[in-house]
Write a structure and sequence with these properties.
By secondary structure, this protein is an alpha+beta fold. It has helices at about 5-15, 20-25, 45-60, 65-70, 75-120, 140-145, 170-175, 210-215, and strands spanning about 35, 40, 120-125, 130-135, 150-155, 160-170, 185, 190-200, 220-235, 240-250. It has 8 helices and 10 strands.
């Protein structure tokens, strides 16, 4: 005698909701017989294989309509369908990889912020080669900023810290392609002291840069000040832009 399963046992067996089995039945993917006495659905061993196939294709990301049609297609049609799904998944993977990269940028910024809090005024090399002017209406540069906000930089000089230029850091490969007149700042062999600059998002945008500069100037002569954006966040009820600031020591 063939083994028969009711809808509850089928749902338990495959760890799915009974409503899914009913929906697949309505879509024509599975056709259990109905008991003449009580009108209950009865699933056979063959139905186990059918449900297994449905779950296999669902796990590939195929919609029910394509699952319903896939067994009616020839080999070339089958191949085309799966190749299209493969291309779609690869594109989704690229998008996920980009999002992971952007999340990692943000996590790196938070890690840098904590490191600056724990180890202020550390002497180090600067982590950029060149900074070029950046205006918000420059769409290509704005797209780079959107991909990685840490590229946004401010260039000042300790002799006139009130004068600042907005810029975008560029890669080593791009430096040699940039005309000299388009460069705000370019790396030299000097060292820098790193510190955490906080600028409040409020009238006048008050920040602690002059205080940081005075501390560094107690020991060193100073030159350029490069501030690279980390993140915007609240602290003690106020909203700040946080920057990793490099103060050149001469």
């Amino acid at each position: 005698m063939n083994q028969i399963f009711n809808i509850g046992k089928m749902a338990d067996f495959f760890q799915i909701h009974a409503s899914a089995l009913r929906y697949w039945e309505e879509a024509g993917l599975i056709t259990p017989v109905k008991n003449n006495e009580n009108d209950y659905r009865e699933y056979s061993v063959d139905d186990l294989m059918t449900v297994s196939d449905i779950l296999f294709y669902k796990n590939l990301g195929l919609p029910l309509k394509q699952i319903h049609e896939i067994e009616k297609t020839d080999v070339s049609g089958h191949q085309k369908l799966l190749e299209e799904k493969m291309g779609e998944l690869k594109q989704q993977k690229k998008e996920i990889d980009r999002r992971i990269q952007k999340l990692q940028y943000h996590l790196n910024a938070i890690s840098a912020l904590h490191d600056l809090e724990d180890h202020p005024f550390k002497i180090t090399d600067i982590d950029t080669e060149c900074i070029v002017p950046f205006e918000l209406i420059e769409i290509d540069k704005l797209k780079k900023y959107i991909d990685d906000p840490y590229l946004y930089s401010r260039v000042q000089h300790s002799s006139q810290p009130q004068q600042e230029r907005r810029g975008l850091t560029v890669s080593l490969q791009e430096v040699n392609k940039i005309p000299k007149e388009q460069i705000l700042w370019k790396k030299t062999e000097t060292k820098y002291v790193t510190c955490l600059m906080k600028e409040e998002i409020a009238a006048g945008y008050p920040n602690n840069l002059l205080s940081l500069l005075e501390t560094v100037q107690e020991k060193y002569r100073t030159g350029y000040i490069i501030s690279r954006f980390l993140l915007c966040a609240q602290e003690n009820g106020k909203t700040y832009d946080f920057y990793k600031t490099y103060i050149e020591i001469l």
